[in-house]
Amino acid sequence: MRRSTGLLLVTALGLSATACGSGESPQPAASGGAANVSITVACQPAKTAPNDRKAWDEDVAAFMKAHPGVTVKSTDQQPCFDPKTFGPKLAGGQMETVFVVPMTNYDDVIAQGQALDITQYTGSVKNWNDLRADHRELLTKDGKVYGVPNVHYSVGLVYNRALFTKAGLDPNTPPKTWAEVREAAKKIAGLGAGYVGYGEYSGGNTGGWHFTQALYGRGGSVLTDDGKKAAFNSPEGKAVLQTLHDMRWVDNSMGSKLLVGWESLMMAMGSGKVGMMLGAPDVVTDVVTKFKGNVDDYGITGFPEAKASLSGGEAYMINPKATPEQAKAGMEWIDFRFNTVGKGRFDFARGKAIGNPVGVPDNAVYGDSPTGKALQEERVKNASLPVENYQTYVDAAAIVPPKAEPPHAQELYAILDVPMSGVLSRKDASVDELLANAETKANAMLAAKG
Amino acid sequence: MRILRRNLTAYGFLCVALFCFTVFAWYPMVREFVLSFQRTDLINPPEWVGLDNFKAAVADPAFGEAWLNTLEFTALALLCGYAVPFVVALVLNELRHARAYLRFVVYLPVMLPPIVAVLLFRWFYDPGPGLFNQILDFLHLPPLAWLDSSSTALISLVIVSTWMNMGSATLIYLAALQNIPPELYEAAELDGAGIFKRIRHVTIPQTRLILLLMLMLQIVATMQVFIEPYMLTGGGPENATVSVVYLMYQFAFSQMNYGQAGALGMMLMLALLVFAAFQLRTTREDQA
Questions:
Q1: Where does the signal peptide begin and end (chain A) (predicted)?
Q2: Contacts with A112 from chain B: Cβ below 8 Å
Q3: Minimal CA–CA distance to A283: which of A94, A374, A156?
């Protein structure tokens, strides 16, 4: 008897282990008839944002009612796109039918065949031709379209208006040049211990990312036009590092802590003790909604002395394993939820009613097209935030040309983290030496990549 | 047949253990070996690329720094993580009071989830209000940059690692110490041996096998350091804390280059296998 129990236990354990190791494949509903189809969609808001989640669920119900036979299942993984799980999820059949990809990863995802060619379905997005042409171009390879642009922004200077006032600066005339940024940062840091005039990243690839933002702003390039050699060891690149070095060590306006990873600077900004940082308008939204910043305190203005701006954003893509019916339903969902004025995410009236920050110009995906103008009107009409705090950014963004990320962006950002952390951690750091070393490494990497 | 039936439960347990090892340890190792010779996006059929992944891994700008940092971390972690627990175990073994309590205190960090322990140290190391700089300030000593300087970042990670892992090592040493027959110490004392002579001529020879085993285990474990640089420094500043496993992580999950990550993993496994074989051989020769 005891032996049988042991054997039973062993069998049960074995079966549990087998169950733990198995994965669940996505199954199209296909319960007869072409109209019956089941899709999974990413980016449902988390349970910690109950109002947003409720709004999402209402949209899902409305979509299913308007599209009989289509079943929509939502997933709420946060963040929606996680490079760590992206490949394994696709390989394991766990990837949603409709998923989001940040601009940084477009090239990799498309080159590796991880997104469906949706050229034949673009007609499902009724405002397709109003979406920014330059962004659509980033999602088009060899004449085939692989994604629907969802968010587009350019980089500006996010600043804390309350700290400006406290430091005797006028928040309505934010800095326009790097010399003015330095002066303002010094005054804010002079408020006392713990105040940081200007915050900047230095590691986890965010240092290289922000170096690229600053470099583009000054008119420099990361790579040569043919993409085969590094081009950041230039007067513009040196100016970026020298300014940071001097602000950190001469002005003492950047605090003493290295900021590694996206959250670190956002958290510092949300604490209300950091005066300025480079960032897009979504920084304001995130600082307010995720890092408890006071919404009235934050403004955004154009990039100082901007000659170009690193484009940022995201796009929705379709799982390459999706059936034609799933792909069509997925595109209809993208159109319904993300591309209809007054509906889904662009239902600003509902957003305001449920307490969302409305008014930040955090998405220029429709540019100044008719749809873009209609959206801006709706946004301003329902604004719950002081839109005048963002006007200088809106004015500047309209005239600064956008510039895409370089190829092999993540590898280059990892290399460029080194000079960024160098100037921010060592008083005796040599800008020339740091850039020369990084250039050698980047050229070796580019040569190896062919 | 009778013998087989009598041992049926044992075979059952053995099968489950073998199954688990096969699925969760051996298969991934074989898969990684295969992956290191392929270029794959995990969607399309993989392409055989010979030694290209190995060449690309070696050509990566951070490859040399990662190995040097890992070796330096291992050496420092061994210096602290090997000697400190042994000394703590010796002290605990000699104590007559509050033994159980102190054993619990020493083991406590092991029970903390590593992520919590690491985040705790992030606050300790904060250059502003951090605990360590507050202590230095109290002692009228200048503050240190800890994680924010390429000269102190690696040793800062060693301190975290030692704190997190010394509990287990201490308990193992303690168990070994308690197995030493007390007559040996009594005889040594009668011969006039002091405490250091007793440690040198009784304690160390009697615990030699455990010491050698722990040496191997600790080197294998510390060569795979990942969570400390991942959570605390992101490999910086200036690549001062990039480790081999952290670089593997970057290859796989930042650059989506699974084959190159696999190739680097194979290199690390090979290095550890060579070391383990050498160590086992030396131990065997010692015993003979």
A1: 1-19
A2: 41, 43-44, 256
A3: A156
Q: Which part of chain A has CATH 3.40.190.10?
A: 27-153+312-381, 156-311+394-449
ipTM: 0.79
Closest chain B residue to A450, measured at CA: B56
CATH superfamily of A156-311+394-449: Periplasmic binding protein-like II (3.40.190.10)
| Contact status of A407 with chain B (Cβ, < 8 Å) | no
Test the A interface: residue of B41, B53, B146, B247 with most A CBs within 10 Å: B41
DSSP codes, A368-413 = TSHHHHHHHHHHHHT--S-GGGGHHHHHHHTTSPEEPPPTTHHHHH
A–B CB contacts, 8 A cutoff, strictly below:
126
Quick check: A425 and B60 CB within 8 A?
no
**Residue spans of chain B under pLDDT 70:** 1, 285-288
Would you call A13 and B60 a contact, using CB atoms and an 8 Å cutoff? no
Strands A201-203 and A156-160: unpaired
Cβ-contact A16, A47 below 8 angstroms: no
List of chain A residues with pLDDT < 50: 1-34
Contact A426 B43 (CB under 8 A): no
Which residues in B lie closer than 8 A to residue A445 (C-beta atoms)? 59-61
Take residue B79 and report the two structure tokens written for it: 């210096």
Largest CA distance in chain A: 85
CA distance A22 to chain B (A): 11
Q: Is the minimum CB–CB distance between A410 and chain B shorter than 8 Å?
A: yes
Nearest residue, CB atoms, B239 vs list A84, A418, A442: A418
User: Residue A1: its pLDDT value, please?
Assistant: 39
Q: Is the overall model pTM greater than 0.90, yes or no? A: no
Q: How many CB atoms lie within 10 A of CB A79?
A: 12
Q: Which fold has domain B36-287?
A: MetI-like fold (1.10.3720)
Task: Return the SS3 of B12.
Answer: helix
Distance between alpha carbon A148 and the CA centroid of its chain, in Å?
Answer: 15
**pLDDT tens digits, B87-140:** 999 888 888 788 888 888 888 888 889 889 998 999 999 987 889 999 999 999
pLDDT given at position A27: 43
Give the domain A27-153+312-381 fold. Answer: D-Maltodextrin-Binding Protein; domain 2 (3.40.190)
